[in-house]
Amino acid sequence: MKFRTEIKLTSQQEKLINHNSKVLLLGSCFSENIGNKLAYYKLNTLVNPFGVLFSSTAIAKVLEDTVSQKQYKANELISQGGLLHSLHHHSDLSAIDSINVLDNINQAQKACLAQLKMATHVIITLGTSWVYGHVLTNQLVANCHKIPQSEFEKRKLSILEIEAALERSIKNIRKVNPSTQIIFTVSPVRHTKDGLIENSLSKANLLSAIDIIKEKYGVSYFGSYEIMMDDLRDYRFYESDMIHPNEVAINYIWEQFSKVWIDEKAQFYFKRIASIQQSKLHKAFQPNSMEYQEFLKKLAVKQSQLEKELNVKF
């Protein structure tokens, strides 16, 4: 008897991620879940330099700005809650004065462009089809920054609109890096504030649009959404909010991602890397004891050896 409906994922035969790879991740908070795992195992990774972005249009906008090296100006910022914000970026880039905000955006674009030019893989996680249009400036935004809702119009992007946004993203990526492997995924986080039916329709539009562009542009799709909804369809795999995947679920999805996208040789090193990472977190009761000093010496030797083998830094 089987008590789960396991998703059958097709293993990739080429362009796998290893310790020589460079990975750029953009999109929803699920990008950070996968990105943090990649970084933990010492893979060259840049995660959400512009902060969390949920919609296809927001991701297309930051990629377009990055590739064109757009220079934002102070009059493009908006004031709210004692801070200045960009409507096209997460509040991580906000600050109390325009100089710092513009510098944060500029630095994020530089970091993104540098990683994009060298990236072997670009992973984009879409969160929702629901978007907000800023009425005054007549533009779709990435973040409302707690500005009164009366200043925005909410609507759901059509499949055609999402397809167009994804095409913009792909074309801008390939302008600077024609050979990079682009992987799309849909966040398993349900946007319950939109309503459960509305969330389902939203995810359906994302999945349909990705399916259309997948063959057209030779990009890939990883089914994190399907793994969560169909394989791990039990509330024991959720945080207490019953919305976000918990650590067990994230680890399971990471395992499935590793099987499909991580090179076997790279996976071979994961246990040794994890051993060093866990040892570095160890706190001694007696830091000056001979036993602990010996522990540190052995750890330093293991770390140095692994750094030479993989050309990485802990």
UniProtKB/TrEMBL annotation:
Residues 22-257 form the GSCFA domain. Pfam families: GSCFA. SUPFAM superfamilies: SGNH hydrolase (SSF52266). It comes from the Bacteria. Coiled coil: none annotated. This is GSCFA domain-containing protein. It comes from Wenyingzhuangia heitensis.
